[in-house]
Amino acid sequence: MKFARITGTGSYLPEKILSNHDLETLLDTTDQWIYSRSGIRERHIAADSEFTCDLAEHAARRAIESAGRKPVDIDLIVVATTTPDQVFPSTACLLQNRLGIHDCPAFDVQAVCAGFIYALDVVYRQIQTSGSKCALVVGAETFSRILNWKDRSTCVLFGDGAGAMIVEESDRPGIMSSHLHADGAFKDLLCVPVGVSTAYQEILAGRAYTEMQGKEVFKWAVTALGDAVLEALEANDCDQSEIDWLVPHQANIRIIRAIARRLDLSMDNVIVTIDRHGNTSAASIPLAFDEAVRDNRIKPGQKIIFEAFGGGFTWGSMLLEY
Ligand code: ACO
Which of 113, 134, 179, 277 is catalytic? Predict the structure, then answer.
């Protein structure tokens, strides 16, 4: 049986840091409100001249290097993003060109904050069934571009960044299971309500912004993610006590704590970056994972759960051995 294993990781954060105290000077908000409700202290914001593919390229090159690979070894590229550089070509094709890679499948996946899990699921299944041997999977966002900087209920929560993984065919596990979910009935609770087909004038006028009914999203996220992590354990006949690390999507520290409780896991076994990154949407899991691999918290052979929840709603979980 073929397995899919993560063999390299990389990430990138734009240089500019926007703290809660900076936001206090722009909005009717406080560091105390933002930190107590979300766990966020600061976030990174892309420079005006920096786009999603730029962030993705930095993260991808670091992941390729850490896997001891060269761009020429890559035979599949999947990018999860809500904020592509262009309507088309996909950010994956733009990235492929930057890396000088020719003739491998390259495409984007759009599942908002659950996007990285969706993209990793595609890569996992491509390796198992379609002969891909060395895939590059990236989560990259310039979410700051789809925020209304006058809406304090949303703009304080998000940040920009990118994370990447190299996933290779292997004869030992690897990704052990993946469960994806979506329910479009909740499309209005968390959305950018316009797109190129429905309201191109608003996009040209720069009014394509994120809207969220935070309380409703919060309730659904806690329930859906709690169920999704238990689904991952059950599918692998795995006990909670066998899990070394939870690497959650970083939307809100209170959601993260609730899921850790559901897993009976100490917060010492949870990778948290939300205080410094905010919610970087599809980039948050690979950013957090790369940080913990590089500082030697996550080690080879350990069992890890990923979980994410985002607009759609979309959500899912993944269990893997690193
Ligand atoms: N500063 C100060 N006050 C604020 C701010 C702010 N930045 N934002 C809102 N408030 C006010 C509100 O106006 C409200 O005031 P009111 O009671 O006078 O009307 C009050 O604070 C309370 O607001 P709530 O919405 O009740 O705050 P809550 O405790 O629910 O926290 C939050 C809000 C942080 C958004 C939380 O609901 C949340 O994290 N939701 C889930 C987010 C999430 O998981 N998203 C999924 C991924 S994102 C994606 O897919 C794109």
Answer: 113
